[in-house]
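Supplementary Methods. Inverse-folding protocol.

Structures were first reduced to a discrete structure-token string of length 599. This string, shown here, constituted the complete conditioning input.
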């Protein structure tokens, strides 16, 4: 299953590391969800938890959001430095390069430009798709190969794709990926990982490669399925779902330490190895939150990716951390590191929020016009994330009419002569427009709430993908304004609401927008993320490295009702909690809150 130079090998049904029996105690942490100034701190916390390994995805769209730009591996995107830090601390590293990662990350890690070029061929052996992946892998994989243990680095294993058995059964695609990794220098253990059902395992396992599993409970049942297929292979739970993520408009998902600890002990007592998903969740900064689709409606993921992990979003050590540490001490070859100090937090305070220009005026002044006869999509305008402002001047009859929008992705705030008249948030929605009996300026501000990251709708486009009609008559001749909020700077931010924060010393804090309805927050020009009064998330985590001594500026783009203050709080508030319950996903559904759709 691996070459003789690999750090990890399977011999006589046992996992060995350099010829010695080994239990992998791993935890997932994603460099793209943690500020780089905190990489070392968070990794040291996971080492203190008792882990000997960490696991990270590589998010293609984090490195190459635009098709005409070269892949970026600097600064926050320097995953090689992240891996080197892990090695310095004494941690092995498992890398999951995709190209598909799910991870509740926008578009499952694919750049929007890449999925737009390959409609209907994603995650298959179609040559058009493989050519894009090949070009990306030429850039990526040699960087991972150079960090393998055989080259003096900490990388001990590399995943082939990600839970492919939940998506398809194209074994030629999986073989191509394995060959692509090998040809570019991967010599360590390569493995697949799939959910604990026959359908998932049989679709995702690859002959000649180690088969790991992903699960939240019943490891005995999963091991039985594995033994039926790989009698000579030890169990590796590549994702143990001991927490969960949240969607806007639902409850905050948690899993009690007692429940998780019971399953974790079962895995270890059965001789298995395990990776906690997540060990430290971090934050979906900016516009990188993905979305699920339950077969009826879109389910956008919140900004926080705390995931009820043992190391909280802010780095705080939870009760789950201490319970896990006590268990992991039983498997430790040496005393565990001392517990790290709790993060420093700023005292709470309330800041006055100063209004900016009217919403549509600020958006028009921050953008340029693209004209077309029919509505254009985000992809047509090379817009990865953010919003699109559509405007036309239709004649509204005296008695009024219904505004019908077909193929809306995802949410449109509707204005008539710059006055808001309602919101459409369904794919094929309608809204009654009162009749002035004249031409009006009709504006539809369409927000991309997050690209679908799992299931058959992966790669779906954004914007208005069908006709816009008044009753049955199509509106034609549009002006579109692309609003790439994640690329806004001072000229655009100076026009919107803002609050000033003066500091003598920096620390972490948690931002709340009481009185606001829905929008976005920037800190010193960095897009922190979305807020939404529908919850569950009530505060946004603001790490200290984004602040400075002196004056800091918090900029707020509100889409509905603007409040009068920004509140900085001393603790996170992620909403009313709901206990996580594992359910295997329906094959026709792309993941549901509280259910065990793959990561």
């Amino acid at each position: 299953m691996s070459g003789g130079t690999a750090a990890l090998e399977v011999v006589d049904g046992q996992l060995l590391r350099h010829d010695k029996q080994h239990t992998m105690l791993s935890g997932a942490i994603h460099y793209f969800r943690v500020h780089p100034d905190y990489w070392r701190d968070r990794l040291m916390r996971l080492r203190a938890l008792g882990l000997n390994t960490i696991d990270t995805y590589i998010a293609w769209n984090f490195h190459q959001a635009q098709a005409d730009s070269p892949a970026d591996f600097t600064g926050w995107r320097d995953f090689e430095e992240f891996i080197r830090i892990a090695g310095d601390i004494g941690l092995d590293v498992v890398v999951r390069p995709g190209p598909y990662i799910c991870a509740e990350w926008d578009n499952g890690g694919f750049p929007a430009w890449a999925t737009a070029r390959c409609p209907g061929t994603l995650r298959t052996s179609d040559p058009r798709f493989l050519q894009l992946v090949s070009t990306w892998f030429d850039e990526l994989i040699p960087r991972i190969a150079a960090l393998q243990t055989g080259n003096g680095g900490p990388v001990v294993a590399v995943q082939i794709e990600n839970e492919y058995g939940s998506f398809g059964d194209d074994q030629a695609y999986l073989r191509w990926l394995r060959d692509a990794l090998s040809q570019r220098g991967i010599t360590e253990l390569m493995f697949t990982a799939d959910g604990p059902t026959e359908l998932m395992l049989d679709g995702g396992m690859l002959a000649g490669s180690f088969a790991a599993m992903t699960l939240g409970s019943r490891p005995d049942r999963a091991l039985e399925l594995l033994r039926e297929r790989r009698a000579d292979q030890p169990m590796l739970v590549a994702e143990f779902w001991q927490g969960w993520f949240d969607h806007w408009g639902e409850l905050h998902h948690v899993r009690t330490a007692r429940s998780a600890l019971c399953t974790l002990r079962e895995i270890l007592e059965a001789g298995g190895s395990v990776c906690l998903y997540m060990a430290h969740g971090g934050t979906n900064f900016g516009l990188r939150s993905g979305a699920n689709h339950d077969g009826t409606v879109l389910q956008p993921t919140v900004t926080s990716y705390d995931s009820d992990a043992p190391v909280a979003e802010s780095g705080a050590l939870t009760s789950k951390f201490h319970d896990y540490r006590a268990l992991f001490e039983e498997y430790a070859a040496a005393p565990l590191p001392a517990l790290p100090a709790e993060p420093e937090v700023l005292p709470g305070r309330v800041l006055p929020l100063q209004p900016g220009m009217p919403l549509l005026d600020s958006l028009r002044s921050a953008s340029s016009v693209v004209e077309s006869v029919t509505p254009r999509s985000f992809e047509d305008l090379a817009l990865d994330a953010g919003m699109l402002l559509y405007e036309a001047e239709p004649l509204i009859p005296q008695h009024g009419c219904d505004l019908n929008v077909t193929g809306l992705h995802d949410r449109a705030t509707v204005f008539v002569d710059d006055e808001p008249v309602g919101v459409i948030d369904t794919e094929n929605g309608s809204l009654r427009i009162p009749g002035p009996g004249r031409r009006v300026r009709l504006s539809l501000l369409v927000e991309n709430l997050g690209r679908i990251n799992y299931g058959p709708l992966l790669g779906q486009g954004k914007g208005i993908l069908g006709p816009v009609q008044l009753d049955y008559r199509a509106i034609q001749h549009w002006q579109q304004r692309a609003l790439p909020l994640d690329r806004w700077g001072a000229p655009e931010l100076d026009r919107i609401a803002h609050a000033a924060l003066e500091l003598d010393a920096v620390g972490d804090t948690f931002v709340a927008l009481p009185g606001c309805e829905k929008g976005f927050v920037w800190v010193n020009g960095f897009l922190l993320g979305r807020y939404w009064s529908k919850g569950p998330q009530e505060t946004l985590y603001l790490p200290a490295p984004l602040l400075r001594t002196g004056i800091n500026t918090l900029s707020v783009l509100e889409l509905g009702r603007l409040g009068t203050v920004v509140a900085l709080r001393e603790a996170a508030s992620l909403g009313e909690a709901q206990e996580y319950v594992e359910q295997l996903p329906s094959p026709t559904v792309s993941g549901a809150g509280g259910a065990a759709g793959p990561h």
